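Handout, section 3.2

Students often ask what a structure token actually looks like in practice. Rather than define it abstractly, here is a full record for Serine acetyltransferase. The first block is the sequence as you would receive it.
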Amino acid sequence: MTRTDTNIRSVDFVWEQALSEASDAIAAEPLLGGLVHSSILHHASLENALAHRFAQKLASQEMGEQLLREIADQAYGEDLDLGQAARADIVAVFERDPACHRFLQPLLFFKGFQAVQAYRVSNWLWRKGRQDLAYFVQMRISEAFGVDIHPGARIGRGIMIDHAHSIVIGETAVVGDNVSMLHSVTLGGTGKEHHDRHPKIGNGVLIGAGAKVLGNIKVGHCSRIAAGSVVLEEVPPMKTVAGVPARIVGEAGCAQPSTMMDQLIGIRGPDA
């Protein structure tokens, strides 16, 4: 652990805020005491809490909670970036999702956040050469959360997946930092081709509900993909695309579409 990592953990405002909110939640609703204690207050760090939640949500008759907890603890212990990425994801959800009012909510209730954190463990396994175990975690994520992210995909920090139902992200997909997407998004291939076959999503991109981005194409930074679009060609930076197939319909509308979350597309009249 570097000195920087030590300083970050000693002033961990995300975890401290979650602890405070957890205590308030029990005071407001004592019936949630068991859940909140076991998931948040019982743990010494955010990493411990994430490992517990990973094991609890993905445990099954095929692999029990204890084994999964050991896997997650090892992942968070060896790769400090996993915990820092989770903190960035929590802040992203809090800042961008109008239904999120506390850091506690993603940790306990939001399957998009939980699926992304579980993916991060599967990706750690993949990078360690433990592909079969990574595939097992991918399967359980799909079964538990309705989200299918290949463990080989590369996903950055500050990710917000709202609602998260029916998300599909392929093996060679790359998702940059500070990306937001809504339910039923597919980052997929176009057939049975092998090797590098999935989209490359730049930083700060907003992908609307039901959008499909297919093939080894680049979506430029801070661009915006309208809901229901099918993107088959490269998208330049800071543009809005819409339609089937998607075409450029204007500028992105703001400097950082993924944080503004503005999905409305202005329609110009014939005299505009």
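Discussion prompt for tutorial groups: The CA atoms of residues 22 and 102 lie 10 Å apart. How would you have guessed this from the sequence alone?
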